[in-house]
Amino acid sequence: MVADLGALSAKWHRKVLFTELGYRSADRAAWKQWELKDGDRANPQLQADAYTAFFEAVWPQPWVAGVYWWRAHSYRYIDRQGNGFEIEKKPAEEVVKSHYRSR
Fold it and tell me: Mind listing the pLDDT tens digit for each residue in 43-77?
């Protein structure tokens, strides 16, 4: 998929902007998220791993224009126990912070 996006970017001479990207903090967070239920087991480490995978595989590509994160609140939302998309106070928050600091 990364190569496909790179080829598309080159073909149209345009960078790719991800208009919605996010992962739930649940088992199977990076696979068929539309099938996850609110009651599914929380897995904040898997959420962090999914963000890490994005930052390692996609973020460094020269054709990336940016990303809009799904469920980044403008206020300090805290739900450490849930399996939602929020990253605040979960391991994924540090993943995102560290990659923005290094860019």
Answer: 999 999 999 999 999 999 999 999 998 876 666 66
Which candidate, 93, 6, 13, 101, places its Cα nearest to that of 52?
A: 93
Alpha-helical (H) ranges within 1-103 are: 2-12, 44-57, 91-102
- The tokens 């990076």 sit on which residue? 30
The single-letter code of the amino acid at 13 is: H
Q: What is the dihedral of CA 71, 76, 81, 85, to 10 degrees?
A: 10
* Residues 75, 89: Cα–Cα separation, whole Å: 12
pTM, rounded to two decimals: 0.86
Tens digits of residue pLDDT in 1-22: 899 999 999 999 999 999 999 9
